[in-house]
Amino acid sequence: MKNAMTIDVEDYFQVSAFENLVKRGDWDSIVPRVEKNTHLLLDKFAEHRVKATFFTLGWVAEKFPDLVREIVKQGHELASHGTHHQRASDQDRATFKRDVGDAKRLLEDIGGVKVVGYRAPSFSFTKDNEWVYDVLSEEGYKYSSSVYPVVHDHYGIPDAPRFQYTTKSGVIEIPLSTLPMFGRNIPISGGGYFRLYPYLMSRWAISKFIAVERQPYIFYLHPWEMDPTQPRMTDASLKSRFRHYLNLNKVDRRLTGLLHDFEWSSMADIYGFNDNSNKELSE
Ligand SMILES: [Zn+2]
């Protein structure tokens, strides 16, 4: 069985943890690193013959259209991370609709492929904003991978289903991966947790997940996690800095381990969203 390799394409200064330090209006004045860092991932995936899903920010696509075309050219799935990296839970319906609609149209224009997948910034779907799926459906998305069924201070729906389910709007939600232990769901999907746990522990958890659940495991990472020398946000809180900078120098080696130890593909490939993507716009 294949597991889903997913990347949230955004720059280091666009993460939710720093949103009060770096205003969206200042993004254009910061030297970007996302293009170079995404290429590190593309090269690694090419080397290991792995196809992935790239949930790409509209802002990044507009600035680096060649990067978007390269993602498509190398056979990966192009998907959406919204336009401005604003938490869904911080937006009203009209603003969210514009954000996800604009991102989809922009990515499709540049990439020349149909975009059907969406991941909310910071897994910001909650119990109170279930209308997000109606909007995703209106805008032509077929699936979302935005729910983390865990207890966390910034995100998560602890009692959400742990595996894919169809929402009332028809959009399919594919939650991030967890392992039930000690009476709660332990997050094992990637990002900060992948940097926190020793590699052997991640490998054990993923192997156990696959053996017990017989479901595709969903992994996620950000391009900035491949960049140990990125500029430091010295004004951020100790907790945010710990979470953002922890073990950045170990990610490259650990990712090589993951690519070697498990089978990977894109969301579209694993869940069969390929029917209309890639072909429709190019024919
Ligand atoms: Zn993000």
Give an overview in words.
With 283 residues, the chain is of the alpha/beta class. The protein has a single domain, classed as TIM Barrel (Alpha-Beta Barrel). The protein is 35% helix and 13% strand. The chain is built from ten helices and eleven strands. The chain has helices at residues 34-47, 58-63, 65-73, 93-111, 132-138, 191-196, 199-213, 238-245, 251-261, 267-271; strands at 3-9, 53-56, 77-80, 117-118, 143-144, 165-166, 172-173, 178-181, 184-187, 218-221, 264-265. The strands form three sheets. Strands 1, 2, 3, 10 and 11 form a five-stranded parallel beta sheet that branches. It has a four-stranded mixed beta sheet with strand order 4-5-7-6, with no helix packed on it. Helix 1 (34-47) links the parallel strand 1 and strand 2. The protein is globular. Mean pLDDT is 94; it is low at 276-283. Bound molecules: zinc ion. Residues 8, 10, 81, 85, 121 line the site of zinc ion.
Number of strands: 11
Low-confidence stretches: 276-283
- The first-level CATH class is given as Alpha Beta
Largest sheet: 5 strands, parallel
Write the CATH architecture name. Answer: Alpha-Beta Barrel
**Helix count, DSSP H or I runs of 4 or more residues:** 10
- Helix and strand element order: EHEHHEHEHEEEEEHHEHHEH
| Average pLDDT | 94
Q: Give me the Rg, rounded.
A: 17 Å
**Spatial shape:** globular
The CATH superfamily turns out to be Glycoside hydrolase/deacetylase
Kindly state the percentage of residues in helix.
Answer: 25-40%
Distance between the termini: 31 Å
